[in-house]
């Protein structure tokens, strides 16, 4: 079996194993896995409305996945996508509600604000990594909590003590009448085009620019890159800023498309952490991220149908996602087993 | 309120909030000292809290006052079993330890909430009836000033936490086991050459961290929250991780940091009734532990160096 085939098989095997574990858990706890998974299926593809909502759910997942994948390619683990997404959400909503401008200026401005806020949130761990060699994992985790508490305080200030801001002006909204009519008034919005555009942007940066070449080189070997005359510190900071900007855009999707406001949160949205799963499953490639986001976004939205249709708690899907991450991370052992199976076949 | 009254109020509540953090942070010290990063502390704490509450609810009638203590043991075992997943993935399967930890976090909260839905048919459990008691330390409580501050009506669990921290310090720094543990985390190849079983040491360390994190979670649930829901453990595990780093991977340092973070937590909750503190917006107190951790890592508060081999799977024979 070729290396490439095995690389493709690892995520597929992981997904299958995840679904099998989910089925076993449903069976053990007295539910029918067939009823459960068909409820899940109907929750994703049941009618035009659910399909619209599923694509709506996939949109921020693509951007969160891109954020994690971009950092990974530069040898960095951005576990702070969650925080960057939250500050992006707030920034976009604030720009969207605070001023009223013509749509051609207002909408790009609000989206840009989210990217800048997310980028800024990624800049801090990038700077600390480059200047002080502080591990980015811990800093980004801490930045997540700082983001959560800070935006909650800002929302309170902006809304005079309330729990959520005013809705954004129509001139900053991504809402799409065309999609609404097409999908039976789901909340599907134009953000999906922004997300797909960013997939192109990531592919272009990584594969077609000098910057991308340097980022990947730094990801492979910092010492070699340094020796070749690349500015490693600059590249680390840039990678984190771009990654953070992707995450911030994910927040803009929620701020300008799905909800059109921002409300204070008791805990994390989970999109950022699921972004890690998306990137891993997509093998950190732009195209792979689309597949990963489609899978996890669909599972996440489809699960909402499970309690009503089959009486199964929605958390079963979270369990499935966690197990998939676990198996993808343990790719070494799956690879080993696949290779062993392949050589056995050849020996026969 | 006079200054002393404020202290009488704030210091016990700081120690009260610190107790679960101390347990979990010490667990983190064990794991990271052996070279395994454990981001999954949060998830292990979730399982500990869930099993602790579950055991307490089901067996309160049978065991009466001893229930919370037995619940601690049940929680310890459950979290230890979950931590085995992390151990197998990151030690034997050579998985990225951070990714595996993230998976543990997602799995723990999902599994716990799934079971809560299944058993109780709603989003959170009922409230427990048997809680940990308070305790007056004989003689010491009569010391003026210090007595009422530290030794009057303290929670048993707080005393236990401090005792465990001291034991952990002794084990890690004064026993052959501790020396082996540290050597495996600093230079596994050298340790392997000296005949230490690297994988075995790491398995034991991760299991200890799971057990302690489970206890920490159960203490949090049975002293502070009283029930279990989706927001019961909300960043406590990561705060313990922060305490471990702020304490420079040292058990007593981690304990000190945990008490300090407990202080910040109790200030942010009790702040509005304390002079001067009430003028500070509570958001600053909320983010204080996280900001301090970043500053500590950046070297502004003394250098904090992680164990050298932390985060890397050990592959025999690789140079």
Describe this structure in words.
The complex is a heterodimer of chains A (348) and B (319). Chain A is mainly α and 348 residues long. Chain A has one domain (32-311): ABC transporter involved in vitamin B12 uptake, BtuC (Orthogonal Bundle), CATH 1.10.3470. Chain A is built from 16 helices and no strands. The longest helix of chain A is centred in the middle third of the chain and has 30 residues, at 103-132. Chain A is globular. The two termini of chain A are 15 Å apart. With 319 residues, chain B is mostly helical. Chain B has one domain (3-297): ABC transporter involved in vitamin B12 uptake, BtuC (Orthogonal Bundle), CATH 1.10.3470. Chain B contains twelve helices and two strands. Chain B has helices at 3-33, 41-63, 67-92, 97-120, 146-151, 156-174, 176-186, 188-193, 198-225, 236-246, 251-270, 282-297, and strands at residues 134-135, 154-155. A two-stranded antiparallel sheet of chain B has the order 1-2. The model of chain B has no long low-confidence stretch (mean pLDDT 87). The A-B interface holds A 25, 29, 77, 79, 124, 128, 132, 134-135, 137-139, 141-143, 145-146, 149-150, 152-153, 266-267, 273, 276, 280, 313, 315-316, 318-319, 321-323, 325-326, 328-333 and B 37, 39, 85, 89, 92-96, 98-100, 102-107, 109-111, 113-115, 117-118, 230-231, 234-235, 238, 241-242, 245, 281-283, 286-287, 290-291, 293-294, 297-299, 306.
């Amino acid at each position: 079996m070729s290396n490439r085939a095995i690389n493709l098989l690892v995520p597929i095997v992981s997904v299958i194993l995840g679904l099998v574990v989910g089925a076993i858990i449903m069976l053990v706890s007295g539910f029918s896995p067939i009823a459960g998974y068909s409820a899940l299926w109907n929750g994703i593809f049941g009618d035009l409305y659910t399909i619209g909502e599923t694509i709506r759910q996939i949109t921020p997942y693509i951007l969160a996945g891109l954020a994690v994948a971009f950092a990974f390619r530069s040898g960095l683990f951005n576990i702070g996508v969650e925080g960057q997404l939250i500050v992006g959400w707030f920034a976009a909503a604030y720009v969207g509600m605070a001023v009223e401008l013509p749509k051609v200026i207002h909408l790009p401005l609000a989206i840009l604000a989210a990217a800048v806020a997310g980028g800024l949130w990624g800049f801090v761990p990038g700077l600390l990594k480059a200047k002080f060699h502080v591990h980015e994992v811990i800093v980004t985790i801490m930045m997540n909590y700082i983001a959560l508490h800070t935006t909650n305080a800002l929302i309170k200030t902006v809304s005079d003590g309330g729990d959520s801001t005013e809705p954004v002006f129509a001139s900053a909204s991504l809402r799409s009448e065309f999609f609404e009519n097409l999908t039976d008034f789901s909340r599907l919005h134009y953000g999906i085009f922004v997300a797909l555009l960013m997939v192109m942007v990531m592919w272009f940066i990584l594969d077609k620019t000098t910057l991308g070449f340097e980022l990947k080189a730094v990801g492979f070997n910092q010492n070699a890159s340094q020796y070749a005359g690349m500015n490693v510190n600059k590249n680390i900071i840039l990678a984190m800023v771009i990654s953070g900007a992707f995450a911030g855009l994910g927040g803009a999707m929620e701020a300008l498309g799905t909800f059109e406001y921002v409300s204070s949160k008791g805990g994390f949205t989970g999109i950022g952490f699921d972004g890690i799963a998306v990137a891993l499953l997509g093998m950190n490639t732009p195209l792979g991220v689309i597949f990963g986001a489609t899978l996890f976004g669909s599972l996440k939205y489809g699960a909402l149908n499970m309690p009503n249709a089959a009486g199964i708690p929605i958390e079963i899907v979270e369990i499935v996602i966690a197990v998939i991450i676990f198996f993808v991370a343990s790719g070494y052992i799956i690879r080993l087993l696949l290779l062993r199976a392949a050589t056995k076949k050849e020996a026969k | 309120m006079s200054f002393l009254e404020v202290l009488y109020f704030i210091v016990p509540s700081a120690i009260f909030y610190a107790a679960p953090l101390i347990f979990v942070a010490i667990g983190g010290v064990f794991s990271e000292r052996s070279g395994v990063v454990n981001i999954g502390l949060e998830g292990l704490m979730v399982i500990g809290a869930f099993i602790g509450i579950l055991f307490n609810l089901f067996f309160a009638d049978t065991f009466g006052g001893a229930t919370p203590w037995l619940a601690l043991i049940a929680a310890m075992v459950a979290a230890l079993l979950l931590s085995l997943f992390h151990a197998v993935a990151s030690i034997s399967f050579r998985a990225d330890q951070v990714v595996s930890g993230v998976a543990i976090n997602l799995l723990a909260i999902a599994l716990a909430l799934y079971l809560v839905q299944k058993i109780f048919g709603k989003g959170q459990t009922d409230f427990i009836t048997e809680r940990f008691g308070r305790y007056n330390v004989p003689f010491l409580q009569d010391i003026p000033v210090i007595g009422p501050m530290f030794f009057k009506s303290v929670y048993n669990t707080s005393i236990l936490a401090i005792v465990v921290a001291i034991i952990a310090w002794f084990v890690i720094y004064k026993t052959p086991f501790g020396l082996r543990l540290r050597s495996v985390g600093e230079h596994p190849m050298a340790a392997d050459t000296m005949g230490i079983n690297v994988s075995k040491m790491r398995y034991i360390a991760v299991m200890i961290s799971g057990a302690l994190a489970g206890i920490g979670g159960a203490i949090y649930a049975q002293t502070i929250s009283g029930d279990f829901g989706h927001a019961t453990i909300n960043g406590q595990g990561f705060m313990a991780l922060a305490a471990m780093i702020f304490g420079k991977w040292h058990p007593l340092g981690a304990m000190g940091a945990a008490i300090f973070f407990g202080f910040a937590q109790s200030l942010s909750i009790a702040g509005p009734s304390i002079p001067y503190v009430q003028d500070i917006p509570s958001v600053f107190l909320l983010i204080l532990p996280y900001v301090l951790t970043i500053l500590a890592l950046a070297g502004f508060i003394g250098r904090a160096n992680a164990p050298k081999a932390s985060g890397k799977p050990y592959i025999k024979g690789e140079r």
